[in-house]
Structures are given as structure tokens and as C-alpha cells.
Amino acid sequence: MTVKVKDFGLNNLPDAVLEEYGDKTKDPRFRKVMLSLITHLHAFAKDVELTEEEWFAGIQFLTAVGQKCDDVRQEFILLSDTLGLSSLVDSINHDSAGGSATESTVLGPFYAEGAPELPMGANIVQQATEKGIRAVVMGDISNEQGQPIVGATLDVWQSSSDGFYHMQDENMPDHNLTGRFVTGEDGKYYFATEKPAAYPVPTDGPVGDMLRACGRHPMRPGHLHFIITAPGYKRLCTHIFTNEDEYLDSDAVFATKTSLVGEYKDCNDEALAKEMNVEMPFEKVVYNFILAESK
Amino acid sequence: MTVKVKDFGLNNLPDAVLEEYGDKTKDPRFRKVMLSLITHLHAFAKDVELTEEEWFAGIQFLTAVGQKCDDVRQEFILLSDTLGLSSLVDSINHDSAGGSATESTVLGPFYAEGAPELPMGANIVQQATEKGIRAVVMGDISNEQGQPIVGATLDVWQSSSDGFYHMQDENMPDHNLTGRFVTGEDGKYYFATEKPAAYPVPTDGPVGDMLRACGRHPMRPGHLHFIITAPGYKRLCTHIFTNEDEYLDSDAVFATKTSLVGEYKDCNDEALAKEMNVEMPFEKVVYNFILAESK
Q: Which Pfam families match (chains A, B) (predicted)?
């Protein structure tokens, strides 16, 4: 018996690889994803005529990205974010297609389950920072017909004015600057916090090295993160960006949208300050969320 | 002052990302690689309309690949190998273009610096395996004009007949089945070993999960690894594959080439057995390497 030998080279790569995966991968969706991935991976290497040194630098980079990840750090999400992939995937899956629902944006690497359930109006600041500007965030959660949505759950999280999320800073209480609120009959939401400031994405890992090598700054404009859910409606994962932030035109993760900018304004409403138990002076931002019905 | 807000969405991704990296990345080669990478990464996500669940599964997979790597395990090289990328990069950089020099193939994840320097003719087996077949490997190292190359260094490594490289098996002596030989005036090389058998690439990590999900077997046909270097010649990284191996037509890492198959034959040469200090019976393979001159 003579065993046939398969020959691999420039003349049949990636076709021979595609044939192998195409023949053997049973799940049709997984097959489609794998074949496209292999096609683009090989096309990239051919397009740039990737050298062996570059290939190995890539292996080392990806290994370092994986090894930087732990319970509170997700360097691969950060890589996806800084290459614009996360924003693209968000756009692919939540194309507003001209509807009136609030636009979505990226999740980011710092969402953590377990935010405290708080009564509407609560303050999510467990530990204030010196330079933090007190703020009240409020608005309606309604459907595309303008009707208030009762029982919507609003999950909010943000970094402190020092630029860190609670899991990044061991001196911060767990779940500082996070909260979970449920709307009542009026569909309104309101809570007190610190006005989100611009901050750098973590730059002490391989993604920071990449940003420096590419001459890119690591800054994100200040923003509040939200995930809003309600029975019968599509889940909305979005931000309210802080107006007048100098990084609104160069977000390191390509996630800004004009419609998601909230206008913070000085507020002199003493009745509101008393009701919300917030010291004067403070700023106020009103942002209304509109959820699309789930099909 | 009103800060301009950049809007990102399906209508300008990846163009806006390409513009950012294109403008800021100073090194022209690095810029070219980054722009091609971003182009193909985004095209992949668009082509398959990647869902958020699939994106997150990808993040988790790549994280697991990175975290499986350690001093003796390189799961990202294994991923590159099993997607055919390593073979493609080898082909891009070592296209034989019709010359007579020996073809190259992939390095694989199990090369380790520090193989023992051995006298020509030595046995690289420090610890024999029960089912190992004794073998003598020999041949010429010459240039494309047929002249012997004096002072060529041949680095050889292989897995045991049980399917493990020395660093994978804590019961194996360090650098078992590896060696470094330097050719003399005749340009000949020869050493004793065990005939390499087929073995599976490691399947206890995420790449193993991927192979199973894709219905692919993890087997590689038996092979000896070589890196051959000599002053004035291009470095040759290649294999001698074991003839009649059942996996020569389905190498899990797409690295086989007809020209790299060595014919192992039963050998009754008692004088050779005595000279090489090898017990009868044994097999012999003769394979001649031809190095291309460096330009």
C-alpha cells in the first residue's frame, strides 16, 4: 500500500484548509463562521506577505493579551474595542434602521454582575472622589409610541472621577458607582452620582503597547453605561456621553454617537436637591431612553 | 466651545478606524500590517454578520488559548498550525520557486533551545520507549551545485513513540530525542534514533475543543524536525516525514509535502550497526538536504 501524500503550498492555501473544514464541520452556522475566518486570516497574511518574525510577534502579542486577562481584566475585549470590532459588532446587531429607539453602543470590559438593587432616586456613589462633580441623572423610559414602560430594569455603571471602575481599584468599595433601578408606573428613572469624566483605557498591558506603537491616545470621553431591559422589549446596551468632553471626537474605542450625548447643566433646584438628598451645587442631565419592541 | 462628536456605525466602519490607524501609525510597515488586519477583521464580522454571542464566544476562546500557554505549551502556535496559517506563512517566506533546494515546512510548537551538542553518529534516544523501532537517519547536506557543506549545524527534534516531546512528559529526560550535529569535510550527517510515529497534537486545550467542534482529527504523520544552518546559506526549517504513515494525506496542521517524505527500510548492514552502536534489527532512512545560498 502506498499512502497518498497531500502537498500544501502557495498554490493551494487556503483552499485545501477550507476544503478540510468545509467537509468536516457539521453545524452549518459554525462552518460558515470558520470558513470566513480562515479565508480572511489567510488573505491578511498573503496581502501583507507576513514575515516569520511578524508572525511570531503576533503569536507573542496574542499570548500576552490572553495572559493579561483575569477575573477583573478582559484584555481581549479591550483589543476588540480598540480595533473598532466591538463597535462594528454592536452596529451589525443593533442597526437602528431609522427607528426612533435609542441607539446602542459597546458593552466595554468593565461590566460586572451583581450591582446593588436600589430604590429609585438613590445615590450610586458609595465613596466620593475629591474632584467629583455631583450630578443628578433622570429621564423617561418609554416605547416608540411614547408610552412609559413600567417595570423596566436599568443597570448603570461608571468609572470614578479618578478614572477607575470599582474592580480596578482595591481602595474602592465593591460595586461603587453601580446600581440597578426598576421603573414604576410613570416609567421615570432618576438617581444621583458623580458626573463621568474622561479616562484612559488600561495601558499597562499589551493593548497599551499596541496603542503606543500606533500613536493613538487611550482616552475615552466620560460616559455612563446602561443596560436597560423590560419584558416585551429589546435589551438596550448603551452610554450617555458627557457633553463638551474633549475626547468626543476621538474615542479610543470608536463608540461615540451624537444621539447619545447628554447635556449636563448647572442646577439650582433646591426642591430637587432635597428630594434627591444631594448637596448644592450640582449638575443635572435629562436623557430619555426609548426601547424597541422585541419581535 | 462645542466639541464635535464623531459618529460610528455601519456606514463608516471600518473606514473611520482605518483612517485613525492610518493617520497615526508612523512606521510604514507596521501601518500596512495594521490596516490590512483591521480590514480583514471587520470584513469577517460583516461577512458572517457576527452575533454578540458569537463575538463573546470568540473572546472567551482566545482568552482560553492565551491562558493555556506556559513555558512548555504554545497554544497560539497550535491554533495557527491547525488553521493552516503557519503553513501559509512558511510558504510565503520560502517559496521554492522551482529551485532544487529542500522545501521547508512549519516549526511547530515544540522547538526548544538547548539541544545537546553530539558527535556525528550519536544516538539521540536518552530513554527508549517499548514500542520504538530503532532507526538510523543519514544523508548529505549539500548546496544546489551538489557540493558538500562543511560545518553545517543540524538541529533535530522529534516526539517519542508514545507521542510526546521531552517537555510534554515529566518522566522523560530533558532534551530526550533532540540533538545538534555539525557536519565534517564530507558534508554527511548520520545519527541513531527511534522511527517517528504518528501522534495527536495536544487536545486538552481550547484548540482541541475547536478540532472536535469541526470534526477534525488531531493526528500528525510521524516526522523528524530539523533546523539546518550554515554560513552563506539560508536557514532551512523542515521535516522528514515517515513514509507509509496513514496520516500523510490528512496532517492536522497542513504541513506535509511529497518531497519531504523519507523512505524507512529494514537494514541488515551489521557493519553499520556496529559502527553506529545500534542493535539489530533496525531501519534506515537516507535523506539528502540541499541548502539554498543566502543572497
A: Dioxygenase_C, Dioxygenase_N
